[in-house]
Write a structure and sequence with these properties.
Elements lengths: L1 H25 L2 E5 L3 H14 L3 E7 L7 H11 L4 E5 L6 H4 L5 H19 L4 E3 L13 H8 L4 H4 L4 H11 L24 H15 L6 E6 L2 E6 L1 H7 L2 H13 L4 E4 L8 H6 L1
Parallel strand pairs: 1-2, 1-4, 2-3, 6-7
Antiparallel strand pairs: 5-6
Amino acid sequence: MKARKLNIESKTADKVGHLEGIIDRMGSAVVAYSGGVDSTYLAVTAADILKGSVLIVLAKSPLMEGGEVNAAEKLASGLRLKLMVVEFNQLDIPDFAVNNKDRCYHCKLNMLGILNETARARHIRYVCDGTNYDDLSDFRPGLVAIAELGVRSPLAESFLTKQEIRSLARKRGLPNWKKPAIACLATRIPHRMPITRELIGKVSSGEAFIKGLGIEHVRLRHHRNIARIEVDQKGLATLLKKDNRQAAVEALKKLGYKHITVDLTGYQMGSMSRQAA
């Protein structure tokens, strides 16, 4: 077992060396940053290697989960990253708001297009994002946009998996090393149901209330007058406490939901995409 662990660590070290080589050869880069563990690890690694020739960019969007923008800014400040915040509203993109299965393609195409323009204006050679190797096997239309725009994904290019990145982030002392994956609020809405500011506000408010009960991992899936709540096992026990259950039902009904359900399958990333497939 010890020999196997050493072998795994050796392979991860080789990947890190590959990552550092990729970044070093870039010479300068804009890094798309969200405050999640992948983009944070990429950002600090790029900052270590490229020094003043790296610009970390956070695209501030109304579809980010509540508090995530402030948390990402605070984290970047604590890590002394050179951060630039740009406004980006996917709801202004008709091909995104119509909410077809290629929604993420149009989001990435426009958001990373802004970063490409930023890089050109500052004579920065590359734009990078935090896609990891595991992401390549998932249903992600945004990967097509990344390829079309010539954006680099150094973590994926170095074959670094999510688990490896979390481990590396922990060793570096990054405070968000075990932070749950972040997904934009549009993922709570079924494909082909138009996304509006009002609908996003409704989902965001409901999800924030449930998190306020002390539940960390939660998704509130919107199905017209039905709210389908996904939580992990620990969260389920918390949610089903009598006072919490009643409070959640009352809060969600005030938002306009008629039926409040808990998905017994549990917390699932990408469940809306699988239903639409």
